[in-house]
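User: Last request for today: this protein with flavin mononucleotide, please.
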Amino acid sequence: MANDASAPSIETPTTSETIELLLDRRSVRSIAPDPIPEAQVEAVLRAAFRAPTSSNIQAYSVVVVRDAETRQALSVPTGNQRHVAEAPVFLAYCADLTRIEHALEKHGHTLDDNNFEVGLVSSIDAALVGMSAYLAADSLGLKGVMIGAVRNDPVAIAKILGLPKRVYCVYGMSLGRPAALPEQKPRMDYRAMVHEERYDRDKMKDLLETYDPVLAQHYRETGRETTDDSWTHDMDKKFHPYLRDGLRDALRELGFDFR
Ligand SMILES: Cc1cc2nc3c(=O)[nH]c(=O)nc-3n(C[C@H](O)[C@H](O)[C@H](O)COP(=O)(O)O)c2cc1C
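Assistant: Here's the final one, the structure of the complex with flavin mononucleotide:
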């Protein structure tokens, strides 16, 4: 053991408060309605804005929604998700090209007919900021869940939030103090995700076969309906036929050409 360079030791720690926080993370949908102090939301976002950002573009904006009526209105396009209306804060993580557009115009150019890259990097930026905020919030005892269902109807969400052209909500986040903590959802086998030096597709099928029953058992234990082939069945139902097939057109309407 003493000669094993990969073994944990004081010099090469394999755990930390951050790692423990991540290992304990789960989405929380049961959130108490009590308000979160503004100072906490600001602290969380200020920390999150230190996330890396592609070429320093900083192409994100966050709309902080506290108003109960607005949260209720936002919940409708998300398929009436209860936590969106109930949690005291909804953070809308937006890809935002307005500042880049300003920069281009200042230099005599236009962002019209923009391409896939600018849509993608701004969306990645929004994702990194949101995940950083999620962890910062978690470190303060705040819990929540991300809401991708805003992309069911990005145009309706943009109207509710007053988003200008070239801004779309990539996903939202319902946040507050947890009313109840759910069991953690099991993940796939580490080896299904991690490859050494080169991608090894051969191992994938076997490892996925082991995940279906593990997830099915988790769903049964937590009182959720499931089938024995839980995960593969869920993915088939979700992506066949294609999910949100009108998304590209909706985003084009909001000023993201994704061509
Ligand atoms: C981008 C994104 C969008 C999500 N959208 C929703 C959503 O609309 N509603 C919801 O209840 N959970 C949503 N989730 C949470 C996932 O369902 C959850 O992360 C996943 O099932 C794994 O569970 P866990 O986070 O508890 O480990 C979303 C997660 C991500 C990353």
